Amino acid sequence: VVQGAMEKLVPLAPDSWIPGGVPDPLIARKHGLIGKPVSRLDGVHKVSGTAAFAAEYRFDGMVYAALVYSTIPKGRIAAIDSAQAEAAPGVVLVMTHHNAPRLNPMPMFGSSPSAVGATDLPIMQDGVIHWNGQPVVCVLAETQEQADHAASLVHVTFDETPAVTSLAEAQANGVEQGQFMGAPLLDEVGDAEAAFAAAPHRVDQTYRTPRHNHNPIEPHAATLAWIGDRLVIHDASQMVTQQAQNMAQIFGLDPEQVHLTSPYVGGGFGSKGLWNHQVIGAAAAKLAGRPVRIALSREGVYRVVGGRAITQQRVAIGAKADGTFDALIHTGLSTMPPHGTMPEPFILGSQAMYGADTMLLKVEVGRMDTLANTFMRAPGEAVGTFALESAIDELADSLGIDPVELRIRNEPEKDPIKGTPFSSRHIVEAWRTGADRFGWADRPETPGSRRDGEWHVGMGCAMGTYPYYRMPGAEARITLTREGDTVRAKVEIAAAEMGMGTATTTAIVAAERLGLPLEQVDIAYGDSAIPGAIMAGGSQQTAAIGAAVIAAHNALVEELLKLAGNDSPLSGASADEVGSEAGGLARLDNPDAKETYVSILARAQRGDLSVTKAGSAPLETMHWSMHSYSALFCEVRVNAVTGEVRVSRFLGSFDCGRILNPKTALSQFRGGIIMGLGMALMEETQLDERNGRIANASMAEYHLPVHLDVPEIDVIWTDIPDPHAPMGAHGIGEIGITGVAAAVANAIYNATGKRIRDLPITLDKLL
Ligand code: MOS
């Protein structure tokens, strides 16, 4: 049962008006539903097998798809011999560029507000090959096994042309200024190179990170059908509305003709967007006149779905003897294909980490003939902080200053690039409480000095930042429905849930505002028919939803007061003068003047009441420098004989505003840290430079952390609300991974005296 919100619903002081709207009065509330550990509402459906994932839907008469992939990186299809495949048992269709329906190009990210493609290449339209692994043939058959078998019988020959398949070739061909979201990845404050050259203490190193591929537990899949002139898609998506709109554009349909649902997603991390497979599946379904399930194999995910691009980063820091920075330079190279849109923007974290008299941040891009890369959890920050935070550790070591202390000495007073004030930055507090809890004072001062049998033991730390974003376009519809002497609330949002707890957090926020128990609140999401557009990306969905729920709730209260009319004890009260409590509204200045929702609706002879409202414009980010922050501590054991690294302890100390649901937040932070451990020690896409093919396209050869690789991970947070964010909360989806690889690398240095500047830190590099 929800306690009343009354005591906390204090009217705001006039000077607390902020750009982006008045903050939620519940921001300061500490002991309601918000801040309580609530289990995921979808958890029971998942563990009991009743949650339907994209590849579990079925349609009558459905057939199964299998893809044949290009084996060359660049050129043309010379011939396709599909006679054997067409004669194979169960085969319904062999689709190639010869018989595929004519399609519009995929709308590429950045080309319009709703465009989400990682590339705008034509899909099965012209026989031109752009990457090794590009789908060239789609086979439909009555069973998945028949489709897979028939696909193996298709013989494709190619005319190959020279391709760029190594970083060295790409560099030799010349590099260009990188862009991200339409802006150049270039920041300059003063003359950093000159200041660096004149600085009394200097570190200048190059760090390398490899390509990474996405490995969500649920491989990408879609089950789809043409019903009349409508396309129905059950997809695995973190951008539900946008994908529906993009599919409509590709197939030349009106947006209402595409209905896309995605209630459950088995992990996304940036990858659950629109790729070739959904388009090919829908095209084949149209051609065959049959519903289609297209489920990528694990190998298929590597061929079709892009990941993180290579980086080669220079970090140069010039410092005074007290450790304060004269110059911070973070520059280097990333890659993308000619048909791509996103290099790895590795300077994003560095934009808000430290104060320095001068700064130079710059990403250049070399072009390689590969699959288009895309977002992967903290794109930019995850690998950028490996370089920056390793370099800070190197500087601390050469200056003989404790690395935590060195970071605190360089804490900026305002945004180092934009000059705007910080909305809420408590990283120093996070450092202090984290260091205390971890036992940082016990860190071996001399690298390589602590042994436990054949194990070197060491500790390292690192910092992370991730920007606060809030995308416009979020709407919420709240419907109150009378059921006898009680009421149910339904909240509809065009959001995506990848398993991180969005629906649960939304229910918490709505229940708290409405003064209803959680059990009386239903959440609908993951359906393109719901108005508005949100996406699970950029760690911003919860803020976007929250702003919309706040706006819709305020509108709902206004409507309720109108319905209540003159016969209500609430008569004459404005929306600002009431609070929600115990299934109704009450006057703030006189809590005895109250009426339940049921009573208001009944007297007005209404069965329900529904309002839809968009969130306020996200103006707060224009006025404030807003970020999530982390202070990370790691202890490693490195085997002196084998070079094996075991992470033995890890602590994340976070400053991300108010934490809405501690239970799901803890999982988000831990999951991010685990992904960071994989990045530090294991993950690496092996691109065969002879032919641009991913050589380790399987989970047997692309290594991820398993349970035995993961130690107890301790997580704490400041829980200080940001008065300038709609619910006081910053994003927590991507900050978890940020900085982790550097914390591990720095601990390895402390344990062994060996500085590894190349990820992943595999044992061969330590011998
Ligand atoms: Mo993320 S990389 O914004 O899913």
Largest beta-sheet details: 7 strands, mixed
Q: Report the sheet-strand fraction.
A: 25-35%
Distance between the termini: 59 Å
Biggest sheet strand order reads 3-5-1-15-12-13-14
CATH architecture descriptor name of the largest domain: 2-Layer Sandwich
* The CATH class of the largest domain: Alpha Beta
Number of helices: 17
Q: Stretches where pLDDT falls below 50 for ≥5 residues? A: 1-21
The overall number of domains is 3
Number of strands: 32
The distinct ligands, each listed once, are: dioxothiomolybdenum(VI) ion
Chain-averaged pLDDT: 94
Q: Remind me, CATH topology of the largest domain?
A: Aldehyde Oxidoreductase, domain 4
- Rg to the nearest angstrom? 27 Å
| CATH superfamily annotation of the largest domain | Aldehyde oxidase/xanthine dehydrogenase, molybdopterin binding domain
Output the structural class: alpha+beta
Q: How much helicity do the residues have? A: 10-25%
Principal-axes geometry comes out as: globular
Protein name: Xanthine dehydrogenase YagR molybdenum-binding subunit
EC number: 1.17.1.4
GO molecular function, one term: xanthine dehydrogenase activity
Pfam families: Ald_Xan_dh_C, MoCoBD_1, MoCoBD_2
